[in-house]
Write a structure and sequence with these properties.
With about 450 residues, the protein is an alpha/beta fold. The protein has three domains: about 200 residues, FAD/NAD(P)-binding domain (3-Layer(bba) Sandwich), CATH 3.50.50; about 110 residues, 3-Layer(bba) Sandwich (FAD/NAD(P)-binding domain), CATH 3.50.50; about 100 residues, FAD/NAD-linked reductase, C-terminal dimerisation domain (Enolase-like, domain 1), CATH 3.30.390.30. The chain is built from twelve helices and 22 strands. β21 and β22 form a beta hairpin. α3 packs antiparallel against α4 and α3 packs across α6. Bound molecules: NADPH dihydro-nicotinamide-adenine-dinucleotide phosphate.
Length: about 450
């Protein structure tokens, strides 16, 4: 008889939980995963994946406009939100099925209910069943933060944005980060009148300033409005369904929809962390060591619930590392250095490594190379929208410490360049590489 019911019990079947469970099972562990909502987690069900599909859908608005300059006549062109929404949700169902299948094919038991920790080796399911496991993995993710203001219940979050019945005529988006800028781009292209309000005067903190400025400038040109230093005071719902939003430093505003995109908070409540003596960080996330181990030796945590870097590929790496550490005989930690990331705004931003100001503060002497260009496609289309690429190098040896880009397909292009930055290549290595002409990507090897 085995000492425990399972070798690994995972709470949460999102990106990190699914990867850890699948790989642990492949290493020969007996694994169960509890998921109270849908297998796939935020990324697949109500985050990155459906968001990216909406980004594609939104882009056609400009593509169709531009096509006319390329000789195409498009008659009777119209947009049907419900058909895009339902196609996207249909694909989410497909992916949910695939993720479930992957777990089942690896012999992972899926329990569709909430689980809480009852001790270092014990969980309790919502139906009262007690289960024991040699190791427990917490992968419960995060949820949207909603500012505590009167009437906040009248607003929605990104979770609901995928299910709207119609595109709101006037939309107010609170927050100036990833989600705010991505959904502003999406709904603006679908014809909504979008205003972003942010409590500070900065968008996308953490990204290079020049990229943020360029995005602001292009977003304004596209018709997105901004209000800065505007903290929420409250939302009043009127009889006709419109929302009256009050905020600091600005006039009240009447809109049809308020979307909160003000950060995400780790899902730690009601998990029973105290039953195993698991502590939190000062930001309310589960505290873990370099191997994702919590304060309890038999309990690990990965992904957004640990508040390290709230990105899907990071959660996946962390999940993989835990499985390899516990069941693959290979203690593995994740490198958080040089993580490339992107904002799927219109146009998108992508970056890896240090921003110019970070590098200046940390290294002192740096060199900055730049290319500010108008993509060929935009020239013919008559679209006055410039791309900007920037390379930050260490002053004495020209080692590249950061690359930042804004422009069409920037995330697609940056992924390959990120390999070079992670590998510690220099500006001279880029200069020695022949350009592929004519492309936007060639600007990477032509920067001055
Ligand atoms: P972000 O952290 O990107 O931005 C949060 C924004 O909300 C900031 O502008 C912040 O202002 C503001 N804010 C924070 N707290 C409050 C508050 N209490 N009241 C009012 N405003 C507040 O969060 P998002 O919600 O956009 O996204 C959450 C996370 O999800 C991201 O950090 C990212 O890790 C991940 N994500 C990644 C994506 C991608 O990879 N493309 C896409 C979407 C999400 P201030 O700047 O002043 O602090």
């Amino acid at each position: 008889m085995a000492e425990y019911d399972y070798d690994l019990f995972t709470i949460g079947a999102g990106s990190g939980g699914v990867r850890a469970s699948r790989v642990a099972a492949a290493h020969g562990a007996r694994v169960a995963v509890a998921e109270e909502f849908r297998v796939g987690g935020t990324c697949v069900i109500r985050g990155c994946v459906p968001k990216k599909m909406l980004v594609y859908g939104a882009h056609f608005a400009e593509d169709i406009q531009d096509a006319q300059q390329f000789g195409w006549t498009i008659e009777g062109c119209s947009f049907d939100w419900k058909s895009l929404r339902d196609n996207v949700l249909g694909d989410v169902d497909r992916l949910n099925g695939l993720y479930t299948e992957t777990l089942e094919n690896h012999g992972v038991t899926i329990l569709h209910q909430r689980a809480t920790i009852a001790g270092p080796h014990q969980v309790t399911l919502a139906d009262g069943t007690a289960i024991t496991a040699k190791y427990i993995l917490i992968a419960t993710g995060a949820r949207p933060h909603i500012p505590d203001c009167p009437g906040h219940e009248h607003g929605i979050t990104s979770n609901e944005a995928f299910h709207l019945d119609a595109i709101p005529r006037r939309m107010l988006i609170a927050g100036g980060g990833y989600i705010a800028n991505e959904f502003a781009g999406i709904f603006n292209e679908f014809g909504a009148s979008v205003t972003i309000i942010n409590r500070s005067d900065q968008l996308l903190r953490g990204y290079d300033e020049a990229m943020r400025d360029r995005l602001l400038q292009i977003s304004l040109t596209k018709g997105i409005a901004f209000r800065f230093n505007a903290a929420f005071r409250g939302i009043e719902k009127r009889e006709d369904g419109t929302l009256l939003v009050s905020m600091t430093n600005h006039d009240d505003m009447e809109v049809d929809c308020v979307l909160f995109a003000t950060g995400r908070v780790p899902n730690v409540e009601g998990l029973g962390l105290e039953a195993a003596g698991i502590g939190l960080t000062d930001k309310g996330a589960i505290a873990v060591d370099a191997f994702s181990k919590t304060d309890c030796d038999s309990i690990y945590a990965v992904g957004d619930v640990t508040g390290r870097v709230q990105l899907t590929p990071v959660a996946i790496r962390e999940g993989q590392a835990v499985a390899d550490t516990l069941f693959g005989g290979q203690p593995t930690s994740v490198s958080y250095d040089c993580i490339p990331s992107a904002v799927f705004s219109h146009p998108p931003i992508a970056g890896v490594g240090m921003t110019e100001s970070e590098a200046r503060n940390r290294l002192g002497s740096i060199r900055v190379y730049q290319s500010d260009f108008r993509p060929m496609k935009h020239v013919v289309a008559g679209r006055n929208e410039r791309g900007l690429y920037k390379m930050i190098c260490e002053g004495d040896n020209d080692r590249i410490v950061g690359i930042h880009m804004i422009g069409p397909d920037a995330p697609e292009i940056l992924q390959a360049a990120a390999v070079a930055v992670k590998a510690g290549l220099t500006k001279a290595d880029f200069d020695a590489t022949m350009a592929i002409h004519p492309t936007m990507a060639e600007e990477l090897v032509l920067m001055r």
